[in-house]
């Protein structure tokens, strides 16, 4: 059993849920099966995070670049997202989960956009845990978007260029009211960020595991949290 120190829990854990395709391939199954298992894993990890509780959990579910995958795979992922949004609202309400989406929600089919808006609205007063889904998310575009919004404010005379600081920039990111991640987990052995939260991860602790996302258990999650608790975070100081 993994023991956690309740005094040193991360406020925000972000996860790059990777390896669904390889999980399926190793079983001689189409990639779709891996995504379906991946949703089950996500549900288990959300439940665990809520139990602990981890105040903010962000899951990278679909990157901006993932639109370039074969049309059939994108369609499967959309269907899984639909089913998730349709089925999980009662559970979220019951558990005090506040649901949020970061990313280009406007690129999703209309029915999904409506479901996102509805789940966000109905769970807005959830106080136990904030669950953030990164959908059509790409950090470079998020930063370019922030720059554009700031430029518009300067042009409108509402902001002076010298008032653009890391704080004003942060207020124009999708993550506006969220703390920076304390811990970032990536499964499947890849050791890269793949355009995820580039700005917000300035002082985040990284945890990489070869375990493929469908095989990532609650125990593996606790192991990552325990590893985080052994780190010494210095933030540039001594
Ligand atoms: C992560 O698994 C899920 C999404 C990106 C939607 P992958 O589909 O990237 O699985 P691998 O990396 O090909 O194994
Ligand atoms: C990152 O995984 C995106 C998600 C997990 C949603 P990818 O599988 O798309 O990233 P790369 O292609 O390995 O960098
Ligand atoms: Mg992948």
H/E order of the elements?
EHHEHEHEHHEEH
Number of helices: 7
| Intertermini distance | 33 Å
Helical fraction equals 40-55%
- Give the full name of the CATH homologous superfamily: Decaprenyl diphosphate synthase-like
Output the radius of gyration: 18 Å
List all distinct small molecules, including ions and cofactors, that are bound in this structure. Answer: 3-methylbut-3-enyl trihydrogen diphosphate, magnesium ion
Number of domains in the coordinates?
1
So what's the overall shape?
globular
Beta fraction of the residues? Answer: 15-25%
Strand and helix layout:
Blueprint: E1 12-16, H1 20-26, H2 31-51, E2 56-63, H3 71-95, E3 97-102, H4 110-122, E4 129-137, H5 139-155, H6 166-170, E5 183-186, E6 205-208, H7 218-229
Parallel strand pairs: 1-2, 1-5, 2-4, 3-4, 5-6
Helix pairs in contact: 1-2, 2-3, 3-4
Bound molecules: 3-methylbut-3-enyl trihydrogen diphosphate (2 copies) and magnesium ion.
């Amino acid at each position: 059993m993994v023991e956690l120190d309740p005094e040193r829990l991360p406020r925000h854990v972000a996860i790059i849920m990777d390896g669904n395709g390889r999980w399926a391939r190793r079983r001689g199954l189409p990639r779709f099966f891996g995504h379906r298992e991946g949703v089950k894993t996500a549900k288990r990890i959300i439940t665990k995070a809520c139990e602990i509780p981890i105040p903010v959990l962000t899951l990278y579910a679909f990157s901006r670049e993932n639109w370039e995958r074969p049309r059939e795979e994108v369609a499967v992922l959309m269907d899984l997202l639909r089913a998730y949004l349709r089925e999980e609202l009662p559970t979220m309400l019951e558990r005090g989960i506040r649901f949020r989406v970061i990313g280009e929600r406007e690129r999703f089919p209309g029915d999904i956009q409506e479901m996102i808006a509805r789940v966000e609205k109905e769970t807005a007063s959830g106080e136990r845990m904030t669950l953030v889904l990164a959908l059509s998310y790409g950090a470079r575009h998020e930063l370019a978007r922030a720059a554009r919004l700031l430029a518009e404010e300067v042009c409108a005379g509402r902001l002076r260029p010298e008032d653009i600081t890391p704080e004003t920039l942060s207020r124009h990111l999708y993550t506006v009211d969220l703390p920076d991640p304390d811990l970032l987990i990536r499964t499947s052995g890849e050791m890269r960020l793949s355009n995820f939260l580039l700005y917000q991860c300035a002082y985040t602790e990284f945890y990489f595991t070869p375990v493929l996302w469908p095989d990532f258990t609650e125990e593996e999650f606790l192991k990552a949290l325990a590893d985080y608790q052994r780190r010494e975070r210095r933030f540039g100081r001594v």
